[in-house]
Amino acid sequence: MTDHPTLPVVDPLDRAAISAALVRWGTRAKPPGSLGQLEDLAVRLAGISGTCPPPVVERPAVVVFAADHGVVAEGASAWPAEITGLMVHAMAGEAAAINAFAATVGAEVLLVDVGVAADLTHLPAVRHRKVRAGTANLAHGPAMTVDEARTALAVGIEVADELIAAGTDCLVAGDMGIGNTTPSAALIGALAGSPADAVTGTGAGLPADQLPHKTALVAAAMERCDAIEDPLVLLAEVGGLEIAAMAGLYLGAASAGIPFIIDGVIAASAACVADALVPGTAARGIAGHLSTEPAAVVALKHLGLDPILDLQLRLGEGTGACLAIPLVQAAARALRDMADLPAA
Amino acid sequence: MTDHPTLPVVDPLDRAAISAALVRWGTRAKPPGSLGQLEDLAVRLAGISGTCPPPVVERPAVVVFAADHGVVAEGASAWPAEITGLMVHAMAGEAAAINAFAATVGAEVLLVDVGVAADLTHLPAVRHRKVRAGTANLAHGPAMTVDEARTALAVGIEVADELIAAGTDCLVAGDMGIGNTTPSAALIGALAGSPADAVTGTGAGLPADQLPHKTALVAAAMERCDAIEDPLVLLAEVGGLEIAAMAGLYLGAASAGIPFIIDGVIAASAACVADALVPGTAARGIAGHLSTEPAAVVALKHLGLDPILDLQLRLGEGTGACLAIPLVQAAARALRDMADLPAA
Predict the structure, then answer these.
(1) Its pTM surpasses 0.90
(2) What distance in Å separates the CA atoms of residue B42 and residue B334, rounded to the nearest whole number?
(3) CA distance to B57, B73, B127, B220, B291, per residue, from B212 (Å)
(4) What is the pLDDT of residues A105-138, one digit of tens each?
(5) How close A80 comes to chain B (CA, Å)?
(6) In B, which residues are within 8 Å of A288 by CB distance?
């Protein structure tokens, strides 16, 4: 294993709090099991926080990590790389989908440039932590060095630590990076042991006739990963800078005992990386929604997570995870505030 | 047809606003279709409001109608009838699931007694509009008179009118009534033309070995409905007082051009009744979630509605519909606030 001085410690879920939550649900004023998946969710939140009832999320934050991908040169995306920087502009102007959703659910939005090819230093709303100006083309070699992967991971951990210290009690990692479903598919395929054609999808609108080409890119990348055992080396070989930072954000949240909500396929690949780096991390995550990308299903199954929403979203930015925040709040609030069963 | 002086007029969806919403989605800063079901939802909201972009819901309200059911005497419920009144007490004390959920999403809760067997007049938080102290046993004859059904329906319409006049811009109807999955199943079976065994479920926890008895009750009730053509007479024959009031609330919302969100199987039966009384009403409704009760699937299919959430909820009270409110808000907000596609 490569040396990982920055990896935080993640505790297993608190079994006593989980047991207490199960007992508490059983005596609330409702038919047993009638809150379905929300009951499981509140039990999970108890295990994450180590308390029963678990605290109700009050200050959620969405951190959107943006970066570019050299593999776009291979024609693996329906969109040109320039869109990454332009969408960060839109987010800085509060005019992207994630801004509308975060405002709806009362979440703070933080934008972090960890690797956009364009210069964004003129945008004060963006935190400038560029590790490099986009990855190298993973079709021709490693996407980045192991040091760069470690640095991007550390950015995510640091942002989590800082937000949590300031009061954030639930974290969502969002992504903006044209071309990033290709590295995500390769990471998920490699970590979940799933073949390229089971993890490659049309992403943000690739025409179906170009899917075989993208699948071949993913297959070739995965083949190079066969001999790699260290998740950080895997991340450097076929990953992305925003994916590394997202994984870091999850590690920071898991280490601090606050829930993190996983978005779509990019986020799921980051969760797979985080869990590979520090086993037990994914058990502290909540799957916000089921993306239409095939690798999302593979990743969530690999991580043992059951998604809350299924709205056929495939936008990224943290949108699907953000929409799950009120459900996470409602589950914990019901467990906390509901009366005992009335005695008839 | 029985005379229905109180039925409001419901306009068809606004086609121009629907077209404008479809065009507007096509030019937002995201891959086409990437917001999945939320795009359909915002288009529907445009059709309901007659404007594009449609207004973002700011003052949602949940109205819980409570009533008892004579059919409980047949052993069709896992719970004694006394629970209805006790749960209204819990709601008045803000200690039920619907209170926790409504507080999470910022919705007002209004409690209306349209037919609870117990005397609740000492509860100031409850609006007292009792039509009768629970229905008659529908296994032995009509659940109520046609006049009583009309009166309960009118209560729902009046409450909607009053709330909308005071600024409510989205309505959820919730139910509290031990035994009410039996009338709901009979109504849905009769209106959707579905056999008793396809619409009868275990409700709030009926043991599986008692399901055949409940199914036989529903089948016998539906058989009496074969000759009934008037939805109001059907409602009186096998319905419930809270179901009638919920249908009225939907008619009031639909008539006023504001969205209403349908909860589980009880709410779905009320939506079927409302749509039978005034065709076009259901097209202005939003299916908040998919209940685990089999009749819910039948009803939503009959009404042509696609549920937003699927969390295996089966609690009622308006809980599932309430949880869909932030998604309804997010859909409209995204359509309103998102920038045009950036020019790369």
Answers:
(1) yes
(2) 9
(3) 43, 16, 37, 12, 20
(4) 999 999 999 999 999 999 999 999 999 999 999 9
(5) 7
(6) none
